[in-house]
Amino acid sequence: MFLIIPQVQASDLITHKQRFEIPEFTTFGGKTIKQLQVGWESYGELNADKSNVILITHFFSGSSHAAGKYAPSDEAVGYWDAIIGPGKAIDTRRFFVLSVDTLVNFNVHDPKVITTGPASINPDTGKPWGLDFPVVTIRDFVNVQKALLESLGIQSLYAVAGASMGSMQALEWATAYPDWVPRMISVIGAGQSDAWTVAALEHWAQPIKLDPNWQQGNYYAGEPPMAGLTAALMLLTQQALYPDFFNQSNPDHNPLEAAPLNDIRQSHQVVNWLRDMAATRATITDANHMLYLIRASQLFLAGQDKPLAQAMQQVKARTLFIPASHDLLLMPYLAKQAHQALLKAGKTSNLGLIVGPMGHLDGVTNISQAAEDIQAFLTQEAL
Amino acid sequence: MFLIIPQVQASDLITHKQRFEIPEFTTFGGKTIKQLQVGWESYGELNADKSNVILITHFFSGSSHAAGKYAPSDEAVGYWDAIIGPGKAIDTRRFFVLSVDTLVNFNVHDPKVITTGPASINPDTGKPWGLDFPVVTIRDFVNVQKALLESLGIQSLYAVAGASMGSMQALEWATAYPDWVPRMISVIGAGQSDAWTVAALEHWAQPIKLDPNWQQGNYYAGEPPMAGLTAALMLLTQQALYPDFFNQSNPDHNPLEAAPLNDIRQSHQVVNWLRDMAATRATITDANHMLYLIRASQLFLAGQDKPLAQAMQQVKARTLFIPASHDLLLMPYLAKQAHQALLKAGKTSNLGLIVGPMGHLDGVTNISQAAEDIQAFLTQEAL
Q1: CB contact under 8 A, B262 and A234
Q2: B227 — contact with chain A (CB < 8 Å)?
Q3: Of B293, B319, B336, which residue sits at a domain end?
Q4: What is the DSSP secondary-structure string of A76-140?
Q5: Per-residue pLDDT tens digits for A180-237
Q6: Do B317 and B362 belong to one domain?
Q7: Which of A266, B34, B241, B303 could form a disulfide with B311 if both were Cys (CB 3.0 to 4.6 A apart)?
Q8: What is the tens place of the pLDDT at every residue in B139-196?
Q9: How far is A228 from chain B (nearest CA, A)?
């Protein structure tokens, strides 16, 4: 998901980015990453018995900045600030809320993000990894988070919650480490990447690979593939939205504009609008990081070792799925499939819904619609 | 629309491709195309007073081969053979049904297609037009059809019907030449390309333009941009479909395949499946033709001179709109907008629906669902 609307508002939370390092990390695929570093931040206080931890796992184009500000003068707040904070649905007066920048993070050139991926220096060569960086999976994101939690003396979660690719991590937590997870919230989520989703994600990779500057991923000494990356972000942006919002944002659109009518090389204004947004965003990301995020999302199968119906049998959490009515990227049927698989396995699962004009992005911008459901869910006893 | 499932069946119709030439054609944008040629075919017989003509306008990736076979030994029949033929909804015992290859046709390298576009030789230079070919619009497709009809002595239609980009031509006919059109049928259609649709179509153009072989459209003396064209066709194919069909077609899909897990350069099987289909189809098309078809579709505004609500006032036809329930490419709201605009203008408009698992493509593969509605519609008196 590609967040194009920073939520500018007041927040009572001030947080700061911290750094966590793993000297040698072994991926799910069996490869080694040395000197792995990720950033993390937290809101609220860890209680004495470390029983009040809620982990927030972030979406494709997101970071660990889930709530609050880094400084009172910041314009934007974290993406789920509407539900995380003192007195909010995820109440930081009660919970210690923690979030971690993923591996191969999208916002690698954002100074507030700390991540390790193909744009990082491989300690063994002194050069950027490029495509020698190992393929990483949703399980790897989870395992890095688990290592961080353990370094803080934490042995279990109160809950895990995430949107979109964050929902994949949340369900992966509940499936791979069921003793850690009594409550799981999946927003605009899925239990696995079905054939449709795997193919849909591939379209984001193709413009990058076609850009002659991509050079099979070895572009770090030269010009990065900005045209391909921008095209990829244009597609991602549109697929995370829905026509209602898109058309409302372009009220003066006229299909028969003079420039594209008179010159095949010119574009409609709405195309230029989309391209300008994508080009701006491209300056803080990295094309190879995007390819690795696409692959991690494509490979997602909760539990990572058996069909979904079987994997759901090992979940011990109460679960809450909240799809968005107009989602074109991870359509509601995906959340419903995981929910149904859990019910069939005899688990306690709940299904909510966010109704909005923005499509997939409603899982972020309209999360306040789900605030009451989330708040009520968090009051329920562990099973 | 990208037809991936040839309808293999018997047909009672045999047809043949004919050639029509316009020595000098002036586009809507005011440019000149010399020695314009298009192919056309027909089913049934023109009656004495030439009052039984039904024009079928084709979709983005289609041709004039709407029904029948060129030879009894052909495997595939025309795309709407289910509703065009003796005794069928569009009954060729009664009607003279005619269809025309569009300008800048998608299937330019199909020996059965005759078209003029950027891959054609510009008579003034003796070289392929490339991007010097003028931008053409849906009105230009209509004007070529009108010139052909007039060359046959035809002065009005009994009806015009088309799917997808064909629906644009059908409504353009009814709006630009209302005295010609007493009945219009729009399947999986739209009244204009809204901001969402213009941007959605642009994503098909981008992989082509990123392919280094594209060379700003001047590739006819060298290697064509097949990688970019294939990527574009992969996207077009998926957007014309829906998850239900897509997932049913890949029953063995496993998100956690070994090849893409172990190597970032490898793809999932479903991606290879989609790529193979697209690469095959790419051999009969042309990258620049696709760019010009995208542009013609982006520029579509019925009537091409005023807002849709006003333009619909000049329509004299009874109209029938048949969206497909699961269409992700031209969602049903687009057909409903045009239908509502006609009702508001005091016109007689009808709204049907095709319900199916294939998405946009249901307008072709499941057209038999609408056969009764179409048959009944064609019995109605002109207004």
Answers
A1: no
A2: yes
A3: B293
A4: B--TTTTTEETTSSEETTT-EEEEEPPTT-TTTTSTT----STTSEETTTTEE-GGGSPP--HHH
A5: 999 999 999 999 999 999 999 999 999 999 999 999 999 999 999 999 999 999 999 9
A6: yes
A7: B303
A8: 999 999 999 999 999 999 999 999 999 999 999 999 999 999 999 999 999 999 999 9
A9: 7
Burial of residue B93, with CB atoms counted within 10 A of its CB: 0-12 exposed, 13-18 middle, 19 or more buried: exposed
d(CA B330, CA B311): 20
Q: B291 by DSSP, 3-state: which?
A: helix
**Shared domain check, A186 and A208:** no
State mean pLDDT over B104-124: 98
Is A262 in Cβ contact with B135 (below 8 Å)?
yes
Tokens of A347: 């688990």
What number is the average pLDDT over the span A116-131? 98
Token look-up 């000297």 returns: A23
Per residue in B297-312, pLDDT (tens digit) is 999 999 999 999 999 9
Q: How far apart are the C-alpha atoms of B306 and B314, rounded to whole Å?
A: 11
Q: How many domains is chain A built from? A: 2
Residue B6 has pLDDT above 60, yes or no: no
Q: Which domain holds residue B219?
A: 199-293
CATH classification at residue B221: 1.10.1740.110
Q: Quote the ipTM score.
A: 0.96
CA B19, B25, B27, B31 torsion: positive or negative? Answer: positive
By the CB < 8 Å criterion, does A99 face chain B?
A: no
The token duo for B215 is 């060379």
Instruction: Identify which of A192, A206, A333 has the shortest CB distance to residue B255.
Output: A192
**From start to end of chain A, where are the E strands?**
18-26, 32-43, 53-57, 84-85, 90-91, 96-100, 121-122, 127-128, 159-163, 183-187, 318-322, 349-351
Same domain for B168 and B307, yes or no, is yes
End residue of a domain, out of A242, A263, A293: A293
